[in-house]
Amino acid sequence: MIGRLVTYTFFIVVVLTSIPLYLIALTIRLVTYPFDRRLRFLHLFTCFWASLYSWMLPAWKVRIEGRENVRKDVAYMVVSNHQSQLDILIAFRLFFHFKWVSKIEMFRFPLIGWNMVLNRYVKLKRGDRESIAQMLKECEVHLDEGSTIFMFPEGTRSPDGEIKAFKLGAFQLAHKKKVPILPIVISGTSKALPKYTINFTGVQKLYIKIFKEIPYAAFKDLSVEETAEMVRQFMITNLKVMNQYTLGK
User: Fold this and answer.
1) How many other C-beta atoms are found inside a 10 Å radius of the C-beta of residue 157?
2) Which domains does the chain have, with CATH numbers?
3) What is the 3-state secondary structure (H, E, C) of 42-80?
């Protein structure tokens, strides 16, 4: 009962604060777009907006490592495992410039979804070939402009926290545009907010880590499938280590 009460209160706060925050975001977009076509200022504000909601719940003890592994003015293909809706809030706390690839339904949410449109994040209708092709084209444009792309290559949240098979779009982009891959691993969010539930689960340790980039030279002679599996195995190994902190495994 207490868990649900905390959750409902949390969502009410999100709704109420999103109104003024969206108006600020809209103002930033209008003022900065003439000289900031990549929308870096707007994205940083969005990072702040999203971070507010994890900061306001001290029960979520967030550990962040590896910010020093992000080079400024380098366009990366970021890939991360996906355990929970919390992954998105926690990833925003990294505060570096990127464009999300997100399912199209997220863009339909009032205020928060509208802000995703303002940021020129990339829509994807899962299972739709035309949408996938359009998503890849938009990602190429962003990479050419110098913006990093952030994807969850599992395609959906893992029901048990384990890293599932990767879809290949992120790795096709990395090969085609010859950009480095930046692996990010998240641990603990599946316990804090499990899939198919909105119940608050009390004090939880959350851990997000940016690992050193994988340069194009390290995978240029591999196939797209081999590249995806190489990165997946790297992330599986490191998730096991991180779980020792968050889950006591």
Assistant:
1) 21
2) 2-246 (3.40.1130)
3) HHHHHHHHHHHHHHCCCCEEEEEECHHHCCCCCCCEEEE
What are the tens digits of pLDDT across the range 9-57? 888 988 999 999 999 999 999 999 999 999 999 999 999 999 999 998 8
User: Which residues face 69 on adjacent strands?
Assistant: none
**Distance (Å, whole) CA 223 – CA 11:** 44
* CA dihedral for 151, 188, 183, 227, sign (positive or negative): negative
Above pLDDT 90, what percent of the chain? 78
Cβ neighbours, 10 Å, residue 196: 6
pLDDT band per the 50, 70, 90 thresholds, residue 198: low
Unique residue bearing structure tokens 């938009």: 138
What whole-number distance in Å separates Cα of residue 9 and Cα of residue 239?
A: 32
Total-model pTM:
0.94
Tokens linked to 234? 């790297």
Task: Extract the tokens encoding 155.
Answer: 């395609």
Asked if 15 and 205 count as a contact pair (C-beta separation under 8 A), the reply is: no
Two structure tokens written together for 142: 């962003």
Tell me: the pLDDT tens digits for 75-117? 999 999 999 889 999 999 999 999 999 999 999 999 999 999 9
Which string of b and e fits 103-115 if b means at least 16 CB within 10 Å?
eeebbeeebbbbb
Tokens in use for 58?
A: 């001290």
